[in-house]
Write a structure and sequence with these properties.
Layout (H helix, E strand, L loop, with lengths): L1 H8 L4 H10 L4 H7 L4 H5 L1 E8 L5 E6 L6 E5 L3 E6 L4 E7 L6 E6 L6 E6 L4 E5 H4 L7 E3 L6 E7 L2 E9 L3 E6 L10 E6 L6 E6 L6 E6 L4 E5 L6 E3 L7 H4 L11 E5 L2 H7 L8 E7 L5 E7 L3 E5 L6 H4 L37 H14 L4 H15 L4 H13 L3 H14 L7 H15 L11 H8 L6 E3 L12 E4 L5 E5 L4 E6 L5 E6 L5 E6 L6 E5 L3 E7 L14 H12 L3 H17 L16
């Protein structure tokens, strides 16, 4: 029986699974997991209903554990408790917050205890049923001195949770213990000397592992068993700047691993770069994969258990035994006509297609494309190390990335392997550029990172897959999530108001829907059904479910997808402040002057 169960677990034929369930009732759970989110259902997603009740941007959504209820938090400082399947507003929960609510979490299985974090630097825990009667909150923490952007709960200890603040602190709370802001805060992670914390997530299968995202390109993974929670007296009179104890970033010895896309890690390991920020982290249900929505860049998937980092894959060698572990299984069939410049151009089925893809990525030159092409060339070198074209393509990528040292090493390696290259104009031109880059390395005075910290950053785990199409520059609360128990698809919102859904394995965009007039920040899939809740700048919560196959046109489908994606890539290369102003101007002029809204109806939302 166990062998049969394993067989069905990996079957993606829905009809087969349904028939198996009739014969083997014990397979019902497997069927439910496999049918949770399928491509056929995702392609039929449409807007089912808009839940109205908030008076400002809806910045956070949270499903209850059983999926029966949904909580939403807004700029209006209220939490609304919904019955989404009956489209009912069950309860408006006022909070003592005086700033935009950025995060909401249920702390118990009965949905009776709810925690919120907000822009007023406070964390509040309330009993849902007593909130309306204005009872004193169960917890009202004012320990943070910066906006609190995210909360994270512990799967195996419901009353244990953490808050991530822009003061650079991650604080720990245990509702079973007394908390007094006049005494000392329990600091789990202190990054106040260097950065702001933007997001936090706990591994669902290994709650000892806590991932923290900040306003740089590095996601830090902590092991709770190695962290000593410190008691720190925080004074509200302090400023965030006063917490920065030193201009030199000290090494965070509690961090067990860094994760970062290789090109970003290499370019930023010695710099304080605040142009990037991890706005959201999500683990798959097995806890083996981690998605990161990188503000100012693309979406990346990391293998939590990988040991491969950028330094290991840039060392010239003949036939390397190292495996890049690229997440690209071969497809049985692939129509070349469906390859599009709006994704990573699907999964190659042969080495020639890897070469073609690398060349196309290099020519397209969207954010991260050159490094993605470099990864393809490195993979090709494992299988066809004697192809000159591959070596030249690799060197060209390194030159474009301005990695002069690595480019020089690979150029030397190539001329030893292929002496005939000394007569090649392409090769001599590349060598001339390398010499120019090497001479231009005069430093910019930004190296402020402790030497030991540099080593840790350089040892960051590289990504396994990336997903392109969306734009994440205007707000710093934009999410990304796996869809379903199997996590075969993922979804995220975008600055222009589109919801994107990708195939995890191929990187293809499965569906794109207009989800907001301006920006979609939150995407929360239902825990057991093909049902999604989304929110953003609009003061409503939108519910998405598969539409009937009756031939009706889905008005929410994005028809000009290549144009939208191309525009998004252009927007990400522009200064974020200019992008925000342009977006705001476009929105107001098009809606106000067309009489669709009045100025008093424009919801306010504090951006990044």
């Amino acid at each position: 029986m166990e062998r049969k169960t394993k067989k069905w677990k990996n079957d993606h034929d829905v009809l087969k699974l349904l028939r198996a369930r009739e014969v083997y009732p014990e397979y019902a759970g497997i069927v439910q997991k496999q049918c949770h989110f399928t491509e056929a259902l995702l392609k039929r997603l449409g807007l089912e209903y808009e839940l109205k009740g908030h008076q400002g941007c809806v910045n956070c959504l949270q499903w209850s554990a059983d999926g029966r209820h949904l909580a939403s938090g807004s700029d209006d400082t209220n939490i609304i408790y919904w019955d989404p399947f009956h489209h009912k507003k069950l309860q408006v929960i006022p909070t003592p917050h005086v700033g935009n609510i950025f995060s909401v979490k249920f702390l118990d299985s009965n949905d009776s205890i709810i925690a919120t974090a907000a822009g007023d630097c406070k964390v509040i825990v309330q009993n849902v049923h007593e909130a309306v009667s204005k009872e004193v909150p169960l917890l009202q923490c004012s320990c943070h001195i910066g906006r609190v952007k995210r909360l994270a709960t512990c799967p195996d200890q419901p009353m244990l949770f953490w808050s991530a603040g822009e003061d650079g602190l991650v604080l720990q709370y245990d509702m079973r213990e007394p908390h007094d802001c006049r005494e000392e805060a329990k600091v789990f992670v202190d990054l106040s000397y260097a950065t702001e914390v933007k997001c936090i997530q706990v591994n669902p299968t290994n709650p000892n592992h806590v991932a923290v995202g900040v306003n740089d390109c590095f996601v830090r993974l902590y092991d709770r068993r190695k962290v000593v929670v410190s008691n720190v007296k925080l004074k509200k009179s302090c400023s965030i700047d006063s917490l920065k104890r030193s201009p030199v970033v000290l090494t965070d010895t509690n961090c067990v691993q860094y994760y970062s896309p290789g090109h970003l890690a290499k370019e930023n390991f010695s710099l304080m770069n605040f142009k990037l920020a991890a706005t959201y982290i999500a683990f798959n249900s097995a806890g083996t994969e981690m998605l990161v929505n990188m503000g100012g860049e693309q979406i990346y998937l990391f293998d939590v258990n990988s040991t491969e980092h950028i330094n290991e894959i840039l060392i010239p060698t003949d036939v390397t035994s190292k495996k890049l572990n690229l997440y690209r299984p071969c497809c049985e069939t692939m129509d070349s006509s469906v390859k599009s410049d709006i994704t990573d151009m699907s999964t190659p089925t042969c080495l020639c297609e890897y070469i073609n893809r690398a060349e196309k990525l290099f020519q397209r030159n969207w954010m991260g494309d050159t490094y993605a092409a470099l990864r393809d060339y490195l993979l090709l070198l494992q299988h066809c190390p004697n192809v000159v074209k591959v070596h030249l393509g690799l060197i060209k990528c390194l030159v474009t990335l301005k990695w002069s040292k690595e480019a020089n090493e690979w150029a030397k390696f190539a001329i030893m392997k292929f002496p005939e290259l000394k007569d090649s104009k392409d090769y001599s031109d590349l060598c001339g550029t390398i010499k120019f880059l090497s001479a231009d390395k005069n430093g910019d005075g930004q190296n402020k990172i402790d030497p030991q910290e540099k080593v840790l950053r350089q040892a960051s785990i590289d990504y396994r897959s990336r997903y392109v199409g969306h734009c994440n520059t205007t707000t710093d609360i934009k999410e990304v999530n796996f869809l379903g128990e199997q996590g075969n698809y993922l979804c995220a919102g975008s600055d222009e108001g589109v919801i994107f859904i990708w195939d995890k394995y191929t990187g293809d965009i499965v569906n794109a829907l207009w989800g907001d007039v301006s920006i979609v920040n939150c995407i929360q899939p239902h825990p057991t059904a093909c049902f999604i809740a989304s929110s953003g700048i609009d003061p409503v919560v939108k519910l998405w479910s598969p539409e009937k196959e009756n031939g009706e046109v889905n008005t929410r489908l994005v028809k000009n997808l290549p144009t939208v994606v191309e525009d998004n890539q252009q927007r990400m290369s522009v200064d974020p402040f200019e992008t925000m102003l342009a977006s705001m101007g476009y929105r107001l002029s098009n809606q106000f002057y067309q009489g669709q809204i009045g100025m008093s109806e424009v919801p306010t939302c504090r951006t990044s």
